[in-house]
Design a protein that fits this description.
Radius of gyration: 53 Å
Strand order of the largest sheet: 6-7-24-8-18-11-12
Structural class: alpha+beta
Number of helices: 49
Distance between the termini: 115 Å
Shape: extended
Largest sheet: 7 strands, mixed
Strand content: 5-15%
Length: 1904
């Protein structure tokens, strides 16, 4: 049954959403121009065609035609919302009303909407929905517009890695992103030298502010200021929190909605670095200050102030919770309350400015934290604290002003109560008079001629005046803050170019629209007009550029609507005219509009309203209510109130109203008080907005605009939830569909000729292909497919197609591929069936043959079985008969035997029973006889008992008669009378005592009454005079008790000391005996233990070494980054110095030849020396390239150790080792004591620093001139004075400690011994210094004497050997001094052990005293003794801590002296010249000599050093004169060219320099070796800085620096570096100098050069990564490029340059560059381990660059491209195998990109989830999900990745990512660098064999 298409208007949408048009089809075709395509594509409407039909819920629903279209009847089948399939038919009026066709599935989710074949509204909407919901892609291109959908979720796509990925790429190269738009603008500014602007628009909540923020972040990142001190980009980003605080608020659509428009201009210099910025604001929503709708908030700054109101610095603002202010929490009432409110603090119903929206809080927002962020932004922008406080005062004053209650005092008057607290607080905060403010808030001044009247205002008028004043103050403050921010942004010089970012409100329509919506929509009309013109212009320019003919588009022009608003007698003109009328009103103004504007088509009057009007905007028709238009346009405020504020005592308040704000965008009109006013003050808000908008449009028209349209996907703020109805409204309103319409009207699909041929060559025959002319081939292909020439055009470089043609060609291509597939399937199936038939026939014949043979064999077998069966039957029957007979016989015999046995058993049983009866009778008879006897005995006994009872009763009667006699009674009563008498006496005594007790009770009662009276009297006396006397007496008594207890304690301590002394003596004797026995046992077991533990120690050493290397890797990386930063800053400093020298002009320029040694102090030696003192002994076997952080940590920990960290006791000397000092928990003065102790430590640390500097100055060997020498001497004297002063302070502190404990003999003895030890150490130190001075003077005098006597030839001095004799004598003296030092050291150790034992004894005494004190405390019952003892405990604790602090400082001083003594002992030992001779095998660790790596064949034998036959024994060193030092440096470093150095022995300059260093060590010349090393370091640094862009030079000096470093290690004398040395090489080790510090300096320089080499290589490789890895195709056209739109690759408007490298040649070029790198490194003799590290870093850079680019390019994510990438990576792997680098793990860094390629090729079904997760272990979770989301089939035959599969992968990966922190990253860090290690590589070349080439001209060197 035919049906009519349902109207879309049936859907009403959300409550506050605008209604769709009543004629959706007409509006849609009008918007997007779909009338172009239906009449050309009628042949597409056949059975199975997919179309879109309107739907009331989803706007458009997918359907499929069930039969061909004819007779205007369309039959479709579709699924409704419940999933039920429905079939319907409906008629259309014409062909133009046919439903739109759906694009092929291959085009779903495209990056650019213009690349869709069918361009219409449903296609755009569905493509955005697929990208947003299925791929989580929030950005999409639509021609030149970037559509950004708010995800309402945090996405990891805005980090620095993403910025780096988009830098330098065209806008269509990578996936759509806000950074791509920013890069496009920045690039156009660079290339076209033209200003740019980015226009960000959208409705509230769509994400405009965030998009603008990220765009500015991109500019701040890529255009960072050259002057690091200004940090303009940081200030620009810091302004965002301020502007959000004062200009953003919560609305029903957005929690952080911008309530003003802003245009930020980022100014750039000629070098395109940020110079400054400027901000312009538009139409601040001032009405929000005084009123908010339900579920909305005021500006954020008010709530931030309330959140921190309890802080001390803001208490004077007298703020509270947000609910306590009416301006922040208003209700639904239209008119403010006029009745007094009951004050209940903290309740939202009692206040005004903060209690209107019923939504004072936002979920997930911490207003307090945001306030502190705002304060930090103020500080960063230079707004000082005083100004900030005044800002907060003004804001708080506005809130309190809103709480002012206006009361009705009469019919037409109002007043404010004098007790109104809010008015008083507001006046105080504004700094104005409260009475004046109270008066003019309720009155106004009227000027009539020369008379002035004060007229009272009604309550409504007064309330309006109060709110107007609040809005005016806030607007002024807003403008002032913006001006201050602009001052901070202002550039000192004139900017060269700028990029503007416009963040402005989008089209708005609500149920009730007022003046604000009118201005916003007016601004959007202007912007839409500019957008239409720009889009049309670009479209026209593209066609003109390609030289094609086409019809010009008549696009929609909204100029009539703009004229309606801003022309003469337009809406704004009539509004201003009505505002000037004395009695103008909103009703009269709207009536004028009905009369004057009825001629405009875009203006209309509603039928049912006389107070509103309708304007037909470009997006929709909007109805405006006229109420409030005039007041908002006037924006008046009382002039008297303004004058009051002008007289404020605060400067900022006065400045807001006295100064004319230049450039302020928000101005208000002051209510006139006199006849004369300036013209500017008469401007209305509408006029001001029109002027500012005109200025903005002028600015935008002078720039190149870029558009970002923000879309709000839903009204519920749900993450990745898409509401089609809300989205389509915004798409129609923001101009996206207008871009689609213009594109659809022309030729939206565009292909280059090569891309078209690669995609559609399958549609032509081989004879039609002309390889020399691609264009002709494409024309032949198109002519065979499309007959209508209007559907395509051939341009100069591209082919242009109408809408729908690409889909048609894709269908033809799919049909051709399908036909080819059918043909292949047909032949394959024929082959399979034929092969199967032949196999079956052969099998059948074979089966038949075998079956017939089997039947015959079975028949013969049956016959044989029959004959055998007869024979078997005969035998069987006979056997059965025999068996039956035998069984019968056996049965009879068994029965007979059983019967006979039974009879015998019965007879035996009878006999046994008879015998049993006889035995029973015998026993019964015996029992009866015994029973009779027992009864007789029992009778006899009973009879005897009865007789005896009779006799006893008779005796009892007799005794009773005797008892009754008198004599017996007397005898009994005699004792009883005595007892009665004694009881009577006791009774008398008790009565007497009772009487006494009664008297005592009466006396006690009397005394109690007296005691009560005395207590009352005593209380009175205590309160007057006697209280102090009694307390003093009590304190004296308690003090005496404490002293007595202290004496007892001392006695106990004395006894304990004696016992401990005896115990120690016994323990010492036992320990001595034990030590002797232990030593004997150790000697006996030593060999066995060493033999067993050697292997274990070796394994432990290796494990510890690996552990240390692993732990230090992070430290290496950190140090190298710091070193790189230091070198970068140093290089920058040199450049600045050179520029400064050029500017000054005429100054002396130092060259390499006149560099003096005065710059030695500027070398990194001093820098390293401050941070790195000692290398860790564990790192001695190799050089890790930097100072060990472990060493510094250990040294710092040693220098900061206190008594608790030192092991003072030993198990042999301390019996009770678990004694600990218990410090009371409640010690009130412990903080002061610790502070004093820390102060002493700081002083000691400062003293050590000074001493170290003095030592450095003393050991410095650089020659200084007289002035410098005098300056250093004065500085040394000052340091010595400071050191003496510190020593005096320490002595005084030590003396005060000793004086504080005069009774403690142990402390006094300890101090005396320590002083004696310190004096002895000082004396020894002075002796060592004197000895060293004598030696130096003697050496200098001898050398001076020989030079004066013999000149430079001093060899003849030792002709007769007198120097050897003197040398031996000196050695003996040195040995003697060494022995004395050893003796002194032993004595010092003994003294130290005594001090340790003494300290432990004091510690035990302290613990014992604490125990006694705790016992006394537990025994005491009063509070006063407890307080006294507590104070005593605190005093003792403080003394103990002081002693500990002193001992700490003294211990540090002892350590310092010990180090000094060790250093002097080492010096003396070195001067003795004794050295050990050690031999070991010599050879390269890799089996090859570095010279084998040379790849030079031309003239090699002519210039290589010649190894001559030794005529005499050389020592392996070069002698040179001090004056020739700079000449040597110049020849070997400055003037040495790489092409010359390559002809020498690898590392020859390093060998020569080291041999010179050996000579300085041989002659023991400190100054000479220091000067030489400093000049070497400075020379290498200068050469690298000068030639840092030359790879050969950097590699040359990287190799030579490392060779010099290895030589310093190899010949240092350390056993760790001598394992592979020969005996001769060990003899040539350095004797006099320890150059470990210079080794560290050279290592740092090597790291710096290494980083430079890596940087050079990365710069050369970077442009080759993407073309060679991703774009290179071994088989051209295999991947099959998909259709592209306006934003296809290399389609950027800014630059359409071809790639610098062709993809087909890029892979070869990359491999060639890598080979050249390898040859360069090997040619200069770089260590193989270092070569491995270099290429490991380069391969990681290649992997990171290619993977990051792949993650941002959807066109690369398909199966065929994965295969190409894997093929390209295999070339790199083969290259590593060819270069023998594969075993070192270099290719492991390519694992992420390899796994990404495998992921593209892998099957993607539910069964493959586990395998894919296991395969991609090097990819993060976000990277895997991103690749799966980007995966797009290149052909329709390939299936898409199901969404359910992606969810399963994500669930599985989340389980893996729970324990992995790195799984959250998306892009790889291209700046990551592996830690650099320089393994020790000794040389096998003998120094004595090295000769100087003649080409070096080093004749001043003499081989020794």
């Amino acid at each position: 049954m035919p049906m009519v298409i349902p109207e879309v208007s049936a859907y009403t949408g959300p409550k506050n959403a605008r209604k769709l048009s009543l004629d959706p089809l007409a509006e849609r075709y009008k918007l997007i121009g779909t009338h172009f395509w239906p009449r050309f594509h009628l042949h597409h409407y056949v059975t199975g065609a997919r179309v879109w039909i309107p739907d009331p819920e989803q706007v458009w629903r997918f359907a499929e035609l069930t039969k061909d279209y004819k007779d205007n009847v369309v039959a479709v089948i579709y699924e409704d919302a419940q999933g039920i399939q429905r079939t319907e038919e409906f008629k259309v009026k014409s062909d133009e009303d046919l439903p739109p066709l759906r694009n092929p599935d291959i085009l779903l989710g495209e990056n650019d909407l213009t690349s869709l074949s069918y361009l219409h509204e449903p296609a755009v909407l569905y493509n955005l929905q697929v990208r947003f919901c299925n791929h989580n892609a929030i950005y999409t291109y639509c021609g030149i517009v970037l559509v950004a959908i708010n995800p309402y979720d945090e996405l990891p796509i805005y980090g620095p890695d993403t910025i780096s990925a988009y830098r330098g790429h065209n806008m269509g190269d990578l996936d759509p992103h806000i950074f791509a738009v920013a890069e496009e603008a920045f690039t156009q500014m660079e290339r076209e030298n033209k200003d740019q602007s980015i226009i960000v628009s959208g409705e509230s909540g769509a994400g405009k502010t965030v998009s603008a923020k990220y765009a500015m972040r991109y500019f701040a990142s890529v255009g960072g200021a050259a002057d690091s001190e200004t940090h303009v980009e940081k200030k620009i980003l810091a302004s965002n929190p301020i502007m959000e605080a004062i200009g953003n608020a919560k609305t029903t659509r957005n929690d952080n909605s911008s309530r003003f428009g802003k245009y930020i201009e980022l100014d750039f210099t000629q070098n395109y670095s940020i110079l400054g910025a400027n901000m312009r604001t538009y139409l601040l929503e001032k009405s929000r200050v005084v009123f908010q709708a339900p579920d909305e908030r005021n500006y954020h700054i008010f709530y931030q102030l309330c959140a921190v109101a309890s802080e001390e610095k803001l208490k004077h603002l007298r703020l509270g919770a947000p609910e306590t202010f009416h301006y922040l929490n208003q209700g639904l009432q239209a008119v403010p309350r006029v009745t007094p409110r009951k004050k209940r603090k903290g309740h939202q119903d009692n206040f005004h400015y903060l209690n209107q929206g019923f939504s004072p809080h936002i979920d997930g927002v911490d207003d307090g934290a945001d306030f502190h962020e705002t304060c930090q932004a103020f500080n960063l922008l230079g707004i000082h604290e005083k100004s900030q406080d005044q800002i907060y005062r003004i804001l708080a004053g506005i809130l309190h002003l809103g709480n002012v209650t206006v009361e009705e005092s009469g019919t037409d008057s109002s007043s404010i109560s004098k007790g109104d607290e809010a008015l008083q607080i507001a006046s105080d905060l504004f700094g104005v008079d409260v009475d004046d403010l109270r008066k003019w808030l309720c009155h106004r001044k009227i000027v009539s001629g020369r008379e002035v009247f004060n007229k009272p205002m009604t309550v409504t008028e007064a309330t309006f005046s109060r709110d107007a004043l609040s809005k005016h103050i806030y607007a002024k403050l807003f403008d002032w803050i913006v001006s201050e921010i602009n001052k901070c942004f202002a550039a000192k010089t004139r900017p060269y170019r700028f990029i503007g970012v416009l963040d402005i409100y989008g089209f708005e329509t609500f149920e009730i629209n007022s003046f604000e919506q009118f201005c916003i929509n007016y601004a959007n009309e202007k912007l839409q007009q500019q957008f239409n013109q720009h889009v049309f212009k670009l479209e026209q320019e593209e066609y003109v550029k390609e030289q094609i003919e086409w019809e010009f588009i008549n696009f929609y022009d909204n100029q009539p609507c703009i004229d309606l608003i801003e022309s003469k007698l337009g809406i704004l003109d009539l509004l201003d005219e009505e505002c000037r009328m004395p009695k103008g009103s909103d009703q009269s103004w709207v009536e004028k509009l009905y009369d004057k504007c009825k001629k405009w088509d875009h203006f209309s009057k509603p039928r049912l309203s006389n107070t509103s009007f309708v304007i037909a905007h470009f997006a929709d028709k909007v109805g405006y209510e006229c109420a409030g238009f005039l007041e908002k346009n006037r924006d008046t405020v009382s002039e008297e109130c303004v004058n009051i504020l002008k007289s404020s005592q605060y400067p900022l308040v006065r400045a807001l109203f006295t100064e004319k704000a230049k450039g302020a965008q928000t101005k208000v009109k002051v209510m006139p008080a006199g006849p004369a006013k300036s013209k500017d003050m008469r401007k209305s808000v509408g006029s001001q907005f029109r002027e500012s908008l005109s200025l903005l449009m002028t600015t935008l028209n002078s720039t190149t605009p870029h558009y970002v349209r923000c879309i709000k996907p839903n009204d519920d703020k749900m993450a990745f939830t898409f509401d089609p109805t809300r989205a389509i409204q915004q798409l129609r309103a923001c101009g996206v569909l207008e871009t689609v319409r213009i594109s659809a009207a022309g030729y939206p699909s565009r292909w280059t000729y090569n891309e078209f041929l690669c995609r559609y060559r399958v549609l032509c025959n081989s004879r039609d292909i002309q390889r020399n002319d691609v264009r002709v081939t494409c024309q032949k292909i198109i002519s065979n497919m499309i007959s209508d020439e209007d559907k395509f055009k051939f341009g100069r470089t591209k082919i242009f197609f109408r809408a729908g043609q690409v889909a048609y060609m894709e269908k033809l291509r799919a049909d051709r591929l399908c036909a080819c597939g059918v043909m292949i399937q047909k032949n394959v199936r024929m082959f399979i069936v034929r092969k199967r038939y032949r196999t079956m026939r052969s099998a059948a014949l074979t089966i038949q043959r075998y079956s017939r043979g089997m039947v015959a064999r079975r028949r013969v077998h049956h016959m044989r079985q029959t004959a055998a069966a007869i024979k078997i039957q005969a035998c069987m029957r006979g056997w059965l008969k025999r068996v039956r007979y035998q069984r019968l016989k056996y049965t009879v015999i068994r029965l007979q035997s059983r019967a006979r046995g039974t009879w015998a058993r019965q007879r035996f049983e009878h006999m046994r029973r008879v015998r049993a009866c006889i035995v029973i009778q015998k026993h019964i008879r015996k029992y009866l006889a015994v029973k009779h006897f027992r009864m007789a005995v029992r009778g006899f006994i009973t009879l005897q008992g009865l007789v005896r009872c009779f006799l006893a009763r008779r005796m009892l009667k007799k005794l009773k008669i005797e008892a009754k006699s008198i004599e017996h009674q007397k005898k009994l009563n005699k004792g009883l009378e005595n007892k009665i008498i004694s009881l009577q006496q006791k009774l008398t005594e008790m009565k007497h005592e009772n009487n006494n007790i009664k008297a005592y009770k009466e006396e006690i009662t009397t005394l109690k009454s007296q005691v009560v009276e005395m207590k009352a009297l005593e209380n009175q006396l205590k309160g007057s005079t006697n209280r102090v006397t009694e307390l003093e007496a009590l304190v004296t008594k308690l003090t005496g008790e404490v002293e007595f207890e202290r004496g007892e304690k001392m006695d106990i301590l004395t006894q304990k000391e004696q016992a401990e002394k005896d115990n120690r003596e016994l323990v010492e004797r036992l320990n001595t005996e034990n030590a002797r026995l232990t030593e004997e046992l150790n000697e006996a077991q030593k060999e066995e233990v060493m033999r067993q533990g050697e292997e274990l120690l070796r394994r432990k050493f290796e494990a510890e070494k690996q552990q240390i290397i692993m732990e230090s890797s992070e430290e290496k990386a950190a140090y190298q980054r710091l070193l790189a930063e230091y070198n970068r800053l140093e290089q920058k400093n040199d450049i600045l110095e050179e520029q400064l020298a050029k500017v000054k002009g005429g100054s002396h320029k130092r060259s390499a030849s006149n560099v003096s040694n005065s710059g030695a102090s500027d070398t990194p030696t001093e820098l390293v020396r401050d941070d790195i003192m000692d290398l860790n002994s564990m790192m001695g076997d190799e050089d890790v390239g930097y100072g060990s952080v472990r060493s510094r940590m250990s040294e710092n920990s040693d220098s900061s150790r206190n008594l608790e960290n030192i092991e003072w006791e030993s198990p042999q000397k301390i019996p009770n080792a678990d004694i600990k000092i218990q410090v009371p928990e409640k010690v009130e003065d412990i903080t002061l004591i610790l502070q004093l102790q820390n102060k002493v430590r700081e002083l000691e640390k400062e003293r050590r620093t000074m001493a170290r500097r003095v030592d450095q100055l003393e050991t410095s060997s650089s020659p200084l001139d007289d002035s410098q020498h005098a300056q250093e001497l004065i500085r040394l004297q000052e340091l010595e004075m400071e050191n003496a002063k510190l020593k005096d302070d320490l002595n005084r502190l030590r003396k005060s400690i000793a004086d504080s404990e005069p009774q403690n003999n142990q402390v006094q003895e300890f101090m005396k011994q320590f002083e004696a030890l310190q004096d002895e150490l000082e004396r020894r130190r002075e002796e060592c210094i004197q000895l060293r001075t004598v030696l130096a003077n003697r050496s200098h005098d001898i050398r001076s004497l020989t030079e004066n006597s013999y000149g430079k030839d001093v060899d003849i001095v030792n002709e007769d050997g007198e120097l050897a004799v003197a040398y031996q004598t000196q050695k003996q003296v040195n040995r003697q001094l060494e022995e004395e030092l050893k003796t002194e050291k032993m004595r010092h150790k003994e003294t130290e052990s005594e001090y340790k034992s003494e300290l432990e004894r004091l510690r035990r005494d302290n613990e014992r005293q604490q125990k006694l004190l705790s016992q006394n405390l537990s025994k005491g019952g009063g509070s006063h003794p407890e307080a006294l003892l507590q104070s005593e405990i605190m005093r003792l604790t403080s003394e103990n801590l002081n002693l500990q602090g002193q001992v700490d400082s003294l211990t540090e001083q002892l350590k310092k002296y010990k180090r000094t003594l060790k250093a002097y002992a080492k010096k003396l030992k070195e001067t003795s010249g004794s050295g050990s001779k050690r031999s070991s095998a010599q050879g390269s660790p890799h089996g090859t000599d570095p010279s084998d790596l040379l790849d030079v064949t031309n003239n090699e034998t002519d210039v290589m050093p010649v190894i001559r036959k030794k005529e005499r024994e050389y020592m392996g060193m070069f002698e040179y004169d001090r004056s020739d030092e700079m000449q040597i440096i110049r020849v070997l470093i400055y003037e040495l060219k790489p092409r010359v150095a390559v002809t020498f022995l690898p590392g020859l300059p390093a060998y020569i320099l080291f041999m010179c260093i050996r000579h300085t060590d041989h002659i023991n010349d400190d100054e000479k070796v220091r000067s030489l090393l400093n000049n070497i370091v400075n020379g290498v640094k200068r050469v690298i800085k000068k030639r840092h862009e030359d790879l050969d030079s950097t590699v040359l000096w990287l190799s030579n620096t490392l060779r010099l470093l290895h030589n310093l290690k190899q010949y240092s004398g350390d056993k760790a570096f001598q394992a592979e040395n020969t005996v001769k090489q060990n003899e040539q080790s350095l004797k006099n100098f320890d150059l470990s510090e210079y080794r560290q300096v050279l290592s740092d320089i090597a790291v710096w050069i290494y980083n430079g080499v890596i940087k050079l290589m990365e710069e050369k490789v970077q442009p080759l990564i993407v073309p060679s890895i991703l774009e290179h195709e071994a088989i051209a056209g295999l991947s099959g490029n998909k259709p592209g739109g306006m934003r296809g690759r290399a389609g950027s408007v800014a630059r359409e340059l071809e790639s610098p490298v062709e993809p087909q040649k890029a892979l070869d070029l990359l491999l060639k560059e890598m080979t050249q790198f390898y040859r360069t490194l090997a040619m200069f003799g770089t260590d193989p381990e270092l070569i491995t590290q270099v290429f490991r870093q380069i391969f990681y850079f290649i992997c990171a660059g290619s993977l990051n680019n792949l993650l941002l390019r959807k066109d690369m994510c398909h199966w065929s491209k994965g295969m190409q990438i894997r093929y390209n990576l295999s070339h790199l792997e083969q290259w590593t195998r060819d270069m023998r680098l594969h075993e070192s793990g270099v290719t492991d860094t390519l694992a992420p990109i390899i796994q990404a390629a495998q992921l593209l090729q892998a099957r993607k079904t539910d069964d493959d989830v586990h395998s894919i997760c296991d395969m991609c272990d090097k990819l993060s979770v976000s990277q895997i999900i991103k690749i799966l989301n980007l995966y797009t089939p290149a052909d329709e035959f390939e299936e898409r990745v199901p969404i359910s599969f992606i969810h399963k992968i994500q669930t599985k990966l989340q389980e893996r990512a729970e324990g992995e922190q790195a799984q959250a990253t998306l892009l790889m860090n291209t700046k990551f660098a592996f830690p650099v290690r320089f393994p020790f590589n000794p040389s096998s070349i003998h120094l004595e064999d090295i000769e100087l080439p003649d080409s070096l001209n080093l004749s001043m060197l003499k081989k020794v």
